[in-house]
């Protein structure tokens, strides 16, 4: 029986999980691919560290040792750094290898170049594990894009931030206390900036934007806000109104403008992301034929991520080289209105100056300094420049005054 030779770059959580899964699911892989999958080599940083790796696997600190293997079919990259992983994968493609990556920061920066290079060399790229861990978002979008026109993608793409917001609401913790719990449980790094300030979700949003709409926005034009301004008091207020804070990446496109944001918003219980709690991730996709579908599951962890990489292994080994699901800009045509001109509902906190633009409608006084208002984004931002203490959060979905009054009265 012929063999598929695989090299793994990195042996941390993702790399080791993938290696163990190949061992535990060897029969299933052989049945699906018609070939045996063997790990030929693993790239590591520290050769002195003890690892449970079969003796017939080349364990090396030099990537050139891997490139020089007599047979190499697939290179799986599971390293967290942006560089030199791009160079490693570029060289692997040039050698004629399929590549798979779980590195969202690297792929957000260099994914387009790698996809184009792979097309030139007639190999495939798997990147399911770069977004939402074990949830098959990439494969779902690839299938939808055969005929459906995707109109909007919304997702909770960072489990750490979602865990913190859940802990603050359910256990009445402060942000600092919930962050500490996330760190103690291994969900947050010692430096949590990438998670709580939205950088991690931002990279994932750029990858989804490129796949769903064939392009990505100017990175500097993307509204990226973290969750550090959300207090326990704000969460309590939202809960009394039947709302929950969620840190959501949103991607949509009108006929002339791509809109991407990563920010905290308020959702009601009719929203598909309302019940997504803890470290779970979820993605809601709206398209013109199928309508709305929501995928939910674990966004991180050894085996959820290994599941995504394993499925990518099957994908790259089975699929003929193609465009990887990318569309040209001209192929997308949705009817989403310009969000800057659309009136939305907002939760305003710190509004003590009632001299506001009359175009902003104050719907309901919730408590001292806190209002539900209706207005355009630009108008709300202008108001915040006049009121230094004002913070504001959009409310996604329909939310009527009668509903608010009923809840506040409880």
UniProtKB/TrEMBL annotation:
It catalyses: L-homoserine + NADP(+) = L-aspartate 4-semialdehyde + NADPH + H(+). The lineage of its organism: Bacteria, Bacillati, Bacillota, Bacilli, Bacillales. It holds the Pfam family NAD_binding_3. GO terms for molecular function: homoserine dehydrogenase activity; NADP binding. The keyword NADP applies. Keywords: Amino-acid biosynthesis, Methionine biosynthesis, NADP, Oxidoreductase, Sodium, Threonine biosynthesis. Belongs to the homoserine dehydrogenase family. The keyword Amino-acid biosynthesis applies. This is Homoserine dehydrogenase. L-homoserine binds at residue 189. It comes from Neobacillus bataviensis. GO terms for biological process: methionine biosynthetic process; threonine biosynthetic process. Residues 136-314 form the Homoserine dehydrogenase catalytic domain. Its EC number is 1.1.1.3. NADPH binds at residue 104. The active site is at 204 (proton donor). Pathway: Amino-acid biosynthesis; L-methionine biosynthesis via de novo pathway; L-homoserine from L-aspartate: step 3/3; Amino-acid biosynthesis; L-threonine biosynthesis; L-threonine from L-aspartate: step 3/5. Residues 10-127 form the Aspartate/homoserine dehydrogenase NAD-binding domain. It is an enzyme of class 1 (oxidoreductase). It comes from the Bacteria.
């Amino acid at each position: 029986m012929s063999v598929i030779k695989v090299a793994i770059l990195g042996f941390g959580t993702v790399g080791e999980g993938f290696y163990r899964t190949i061992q535990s699911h060897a029969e299933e892989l052989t049945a699906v691919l018609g070939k045996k999958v063997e790990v030929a080599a693993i790239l590591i940083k520290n050769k002195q560290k003890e690892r449970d790796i079969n003796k017939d696997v080349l364990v090396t600190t030099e990537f050139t040792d891997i490139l020089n293997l007599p047979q190499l079919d697939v290179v799986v990259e599971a390293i967290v750094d942006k560089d030199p992983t791009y160079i490693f994968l570029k060289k692997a493609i040039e050698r004629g290898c399929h590549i798979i990556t779980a590195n969202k920061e690297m792929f957000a920066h260099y994914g387009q170049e790698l996809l184009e290079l792979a097309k030139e060399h007639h190999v495939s790229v798997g990147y399911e594990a770069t977004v939402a861990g074990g949830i098959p978002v990439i494969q779902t979008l690839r299938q939808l894009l055969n005929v459906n026109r995707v109109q909007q993608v919304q997702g909770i793409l960072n489990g750490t931030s979602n865990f913190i917001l859940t802990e603050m609401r359910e256990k009445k913790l402060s942000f600092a206390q919930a962050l500490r719990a996330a760190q103690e449980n291994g969900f947050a790094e010692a430096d949590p900036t990438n998670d709580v300030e939205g950088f991690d979700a931002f990279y994932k949003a750029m990858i989804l934007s490129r796949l769903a709409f064939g392009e990505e926005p100017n990175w500097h034009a993307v509204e990226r806000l973290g969750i550090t301004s959300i207090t326990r008091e704000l969460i309590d207020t939202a809960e009394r109104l039947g709302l929950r804070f969620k840190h959501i990446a949103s991607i949509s496109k009108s006929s002339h403008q791509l809109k991407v944001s990563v920010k905290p918003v308020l959702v009601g219980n009719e929203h598909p992301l309302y019940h997504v709690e803890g470290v779970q991730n979820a993605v809601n996709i709206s398209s013109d034929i199928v309508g709305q579908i929501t995928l939910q599951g674990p966004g991180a962890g050894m085996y959820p991520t290994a599941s995504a990489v394993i499925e990518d292994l099957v994908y790259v080994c089975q699929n003929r080289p193609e465009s990887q699901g990318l569309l040209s800009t001209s192929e997308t045509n949705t009817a989403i209105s310009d969000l800057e001109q659309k009136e939305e509902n907002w939760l305003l906190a710190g509004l003590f100056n009632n001299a506001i633009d009359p175009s902003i409608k104050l719907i309901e006084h919730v408590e001292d300094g806190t209002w539900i208002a209706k207005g355009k984004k630009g108008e709300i931002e202008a108001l915040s420049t006049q009121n230094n203490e004002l913070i504001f959060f959009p409310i996604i979905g329909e939310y009527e005054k009668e509903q608010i009054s009923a809840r506040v009265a409880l």
